[in-house]
Amino acid sequence: MEPFLGLTASGLSKNYGPKKALDNVSFKAPKAGFTVILGPGGAGKTTTLRLLAGLEPQLRGEIFLGDTEISKLAPKDRNLAMIFDNLALYPNKNGFQNLASPLIQRKVPFEQIRSRVFEIAEKLNLSLVLDRLPKTMSGGEKQRLALGRALVREPRFFLLDEPLSSLDAPLRYVIRAELKRLQREEGHSFLMATPDFTEALAVADTIIVLNEGKVVQTGDQSDIYDRPVNTHTALFVGSPQINLLRSGYSNGRISLLGQQLPCPAHLSEVLAQRNLAKFTIGLRPENVSLILPNGPTTIDKSPNEKPNNPQNPLYPDILAQGPIIDIESLGRTLSVTVGIGRELVTMLAPATVLDQISIGLVVDFKIKDPTGLSAFDIAGLNIAA
Amino acid sequence: MLNRPLSPWQIPVLVLALIVVLFPIFWLVMTAIKPPIDWNASPAIWIPSEPTLINFQTLFDPDAIRAHGVGGVSQSATRAVLGSIMASLSSTFLAVALGLISAIGLSRYSRTNWATPLIILSGRMFPPAAIAVPFVIIFSMTNLMDTYPGLVAIYTAVTLPFSTWMLKSFVDDLPREMEEAAMLDGKSRLAAHLTITLPLIKGGLFSTTMLVFILNWSEYMFAQVLSNTKIATIPVQLAKYVTATAGTLYGVQAALAVLAMVPLIIGGYFIQGHLARGLTFGAIKK
Description:
The complex is a heterodimer.
Chain A: E1 7-16, E2 19-29, E3 34-38, H1 45-53, E4 60-65, E5 68-69, E6 80-83, H2 95-105, H3 110-123, H4 139-151, E7 157-161, H5 169-186, E8 190-194, H6 197-203, E9 206-211, E10 214-219, H7 221-226, H8 231-236, E11 243-250, E12 253-256, E13 259-262, H9 265-274, E14 279-283, E15 288-292, E16 295-296, E17 320-329, E18 333-340, E19 343-350, E20 362-367, E21 374-376
Parallel strand pairs in A: 3-8, 3-9, 6-7, 7-8
Antiparallel strand pairs in A: 1-2, 1-4, 4-5, 9-10, 11-12, 11-14, 12-13, 14-21, 15-16, 15-20, 17-18, 17-20, 18-19
Helix pairs in contact in A: 2-3, 2-4
Chain B: H1 10-32, H2 54-60, H3 78-109, H4 115-122, H5 128-141, H6 148-173, H7 177-184, H8 189-200, H9 202-217, H10 221-226, H11 234-240, E1 242-243, E2 247-248, H12 250-271, H13 275-279
Antiparallel strand pairs in B: 1-2
Helix pairs in contact in B: 1-12, 2-12, 3-6, 3-9, 3-11, 6-9, 7-8, 9-12, 11-12
């Protein structure tokens, strides 16, 4: 087996007073990969990165870079760079001095520093801010300067702590794409923390979902999005949020919104085995089709959507019917919420139908692809995972 | 800082306040240049018709005033001025140096959020007179009574909470990630504090030094209680000019007070922006 050259966290635990900040966190972030730690605020993302960087001691656990244990080394000896969410640029140093500071601290000869700084400034489009102080720079320039200060030294791993959080939305997309491009082209090893699932899905090769100090799930985009390990991840990843609907199993059929449906093939074996009288069905909004009098509506496929399987002939053309409770515009699509008894179902519809629907209008809808359903037991765990 | 024009009714109020504040200083300066006959003349002489420097001369040549028959002291003020300079400078240096270490420690490495800060402040929660008596006893037992090291020790102890809290508020304003970035880039903790933290708080360091110096320079009570014949400071010397044995040397007293004001005015001018922060232990920020 080839030796693992990335960053390995093994059983990291950390307490702040009596509060468990991290509880036995283990993962592997591959070399030359873009790994993202995804989790809500307070999940322990920053703590994880700070432990890896050696800025705080861990209670238990080891950290390896390749096969070298680095958990007991001082931050300066770990050969990592970190970009902080507040960027931590030196306010009293200009662009050049900020970029040069890691090299100056490593006592690199000045001629080398000069050429390296100019090279990085060229690459990150920072040439015009080299003689300016950070307070005179725009948000994007500061962001790229912080990135440049980390890149200038060529460390073995980059830790990025919500590096895009201070930017406004349009700039965030630009810098995000730049980060991804840079990582891929230069073969850098990135480990980035973010609370934003779209960011994670957009850039990551590997996603580590962290919640309440524990690793909940590790996988690529489709693992996380299509096969969330529990309802927490299912709700956290995806917007509008996944619909969680009450369901039950008996004799090869599942009940959903008052209908008895044939059990989807990918769930039939485990449902038959566990014979759950009560469980929860997870139904993504883009997997529901709003049906208007002139026929079902369709939306452009999102990149995460797989091509529809041929329609299961046993599935009804209409799953259920109910009044529209809420309509929210998402730009080219609409998020339409329909009430059926005590349950709500949110679905996506094209923006072009806006003038055909209104709050209170009773509409039909159906499931597009039964293989896209997920099922969770009453504890919230995915029963098929 | 608000920067808007004063409304018409604010001007007379400000003028009145200025008169209240500046009148004693005006009186002091005038008294310092009055000949002995004018010192407590009645009705009061506001501006002397024959200004003189004899009061200043008497500070360093005590016998100069004797001819006027208003009393006299045997001690020149030189010793007190030198004593004040020495005691204030050394205790300011100590209080700021120790305060800096404590401030960085509290700001960066302390997990307690209230207990330690409160304990540091507790020494300032009593009136100074309440802790002076125990110090007299302690100093007598340790042979620190009437010595400069003793005075420096107590000045350092009394001003350390000020310097710690004021400096902590400046360190708190700096994101710790700046030091951490430097640590990842190759610096030890100490080096990161010296090369990153220190240059970024140098304005705060300067203001703190000035404030602590002013506190030490104008301290009277401890110096009076803990000194006897071997040491003196300017405030102690000031008191010696108006006593039963010395007589009422108002002009000489005023002359020394005017000299003593000079460093305070210069220092106060430089730190006026930070004064509120210092006097509220860092609670008020500009």
